[in-house]
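Ticket #403: bound-state structure for zinc ion.
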Amino acid sequence: MSIKLNGREHELSADIQNVAQLLGSLSLENRIVIVELNKEIISKSAYADQPVRDGDKVELVHFVGGG
Amino acid sequence: MQDRYRKQELFIGKEGQSRMEKSKIVLIGMGALGSASAEMLVRAGIGELVLIDRDYVELHNLQRQQLYTEEDAAAYLPKASAAAKRLKAINQHVKLQSVIENVDHHNIEQLMEGADVILDATDNFETRLLVNDAALKHGIPYLYGACVGSYGVTCPILANGDAPCLHCLLEQLPQQSETCDTAGIIGPIVQWVAAVQVTQALRLLSGQKLKAELCAFDIWTGDYSRVDVRGLRDASCPSCGMDAVLPFLNGAEQTRLDVLCGREAVHIRPGAKKSLNLPALAEEWAFAVDHVTANEHLLAFRYREHRIVLFTDGRAIIHGIDDIVRARSLYDSLVG
Ligand SMILES: [Zn+2]
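RESOLUTION: The complex was predicted; output attached.
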């Protein structure tokens, strides 16, 4: 399946079914992230329960500390 | 109108330019972001700029910290003074104040007194959350900006009782984060972050509103993302919620440092205990550290000529140093 990630087409392997797995596939599982799924911000506690489906629009911003 | 600002004034208007020349911006950190923002603000004719940094110029800064020269590095000039020297040569009319200090809960309120905008150019989250607390208390807009690798992120913290604060967004002090010392950084992303922050400052000073929007860009891949964060204001936030206690400003969350007498070493204790994944850190830091020894409690290694022992709870002992400000800077450049 494919989603729109930060405005671009992004292919997902079939084993990625929720937000937590999506973050894992992007190596962001240990970062502080804001996840917007179809214009709705997903709370951090719901990442493992929130399904990701074909055609979803996802915006991801993770925080960094350098400067 | 001073001729030197004519083209800017055509864009932001007479009123905007005149407010610009009467305004004061405080820059927290004079590394890469601070250098880039300061130069833009001084060229734009800001009235007064406060330059705060605890560090001195080193050769490895020159790749991206645009105000500094080889001469500054050879002379171990503090960044705040080296910056002022260069900025004065660019625009003699800007009032500059150099502060060579570590920002902490004792001095932050005094350092930001009278500021119209606070611009974030620090290299660690603890200082950011401290500045966030102080900015909220005094109702001063605070422009968060940071970068690592080729990725940068910005968000205005508006302190208007409506938008979320940085503490709402992060929820907690990150346990560990990538830093420019461990993950690297390229110069162009610094310019992007600073450009966005300075534009936000120009908008605020010209009387325009800012949206509470998180904005991120990876300048290497071209990935851009933007999230409207208005809904993330947390009513129970310890920094901006109904029972706000400003935990970073009151010192409760502040990292403690002690010189270990007779050992030329500094002991660092984070205000809130961490639980670090040391094997993962050792892997991430492979290019920055060497002589690594690890066991289940600690990681020992050499980093910039110092022997450092880091414990899982975030405590560290840095050997070969008795200057706590310098020790803190080393710690932040690793752990973030
Ligand atoms: Zn808050």
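RESOLUTION NOTES: Chain B has a mean pLDDT of 93.
TICKET STATUS: resolved
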